[in-house]
């Protein structure tokens, strides 16, 4: 077997004449020019043309990247998890892919000389860990899947000694964008948590080699450039792991273009991109300045009118809206040229009114603030979950009570994109069928609920506690 890291979360695996490609994002940016591959991808079009199948772990754009798929991989077979939501497969069909296979949880699929198995994990957003076997080598590509506890142990028990385990180690969510204004004690996320979770995962799996993965990106848009310091890069992860080294596994950093082959071992690309990170990011930003400039013009041309806000309010009519998704909120839309417009939104009645002056968070009315282009696309294309991941949005509350309600509102909008709302019997039927195969995951949730409700662990610390087996 041999494999090559092509980019952020893109992995090419070969065995004999068979090759599969996982989670291809190889062109430009994603999330409204927020995320960029860093270091930049290393690949050839010939490598992509030769692949027998494309495997996509989940629908996030840094794994499911439409421009990459359309440019390089048209006509290829695409394999996605058989999750309760249909969005991933439906969107693939919408951009012209006809051969799309939804592979059930835990079911092995033979692709030439390689064996592929997907393991889903996640209550609503179903990430999938990917196991690839061939030539006596076993790869576990967990990417963003936070699989843990007995669900993770089942993979290890079933596949035996894992040779290479790949896992993310940085924030890929919107938590850092939530703030209780004036409350310095409010903590939405913990950057070091991602290091500890990576280490806890590898301690549970005990692979020969642990590969930092699915975290090689940066932020170049003006809205988020300052967040680059929050990204956890692989060299920092290595320093963290070196402070308490494990005897059960070795960490190997692999930059894009790095590879391993069973007959040759590792071939590693230089880590120079991180030696002068500030300078490298500045140079990268200058390189894509024209692209960013054109996008700024495009953003400033976006029009948000009352009809668009009416469409936003219509989301709250969804059947089965949870009880906590109620009350008032302020929606603020902004443009790069400094224009801003706020609306008082009343969820209970699905009504709103434009505000003459911008209003910050006040008791009983938290704030969702979004760039105009992100808001428009989120409304028109049902993409509020992706909007948050961009980190270009802000979620502000005046106190913890309002923050709790705001979290429920945002979760509702996120889950609308994922197919949970409006509630339909077809979705529920697929959900129940999925958990007949994924029953171990329910035990992990019970463990997590104990830690959350009884032990009072913050949500962002529950994962690593489950990985440690803490009760």
What does it look like?
The protein is α/β, with parallel strands linked by helices and 471 residues long. It has 15 helices and 24 strands. It has an eight-stranded mixed beta sheet with strand order 8-7-6-3-2-1-18-19, with helices on one face. β21 and β22 form a beta hairpin. α13 packs across α14 and α14 crosses α15. The longest helix is centred in the C-terminal third of the chain and has 18 residues. The relative contact order is 0.13. The model has no long low-confidence stretch (mean pLDDT 95).
Strand order of the largest sheet: 8-7-6-3-2-1-18-19
- Based on CA atoms alone, the radius of gyration comes out at 22 Å
The number of helices is 15
Main pleated sheet: 8 strands, mixed
Structural class based on helices, strands and sheet pairing: alpha/beta
Q: Tell me, briefly, the overall form.
A: globular
- Give a count of the beta strands, DSSP E runs of length 2 or more: 24
Report helical residue fraction: 25-40%
Estimated share of beta-strand residues: 15-25%
Average residue pLDDT: 95
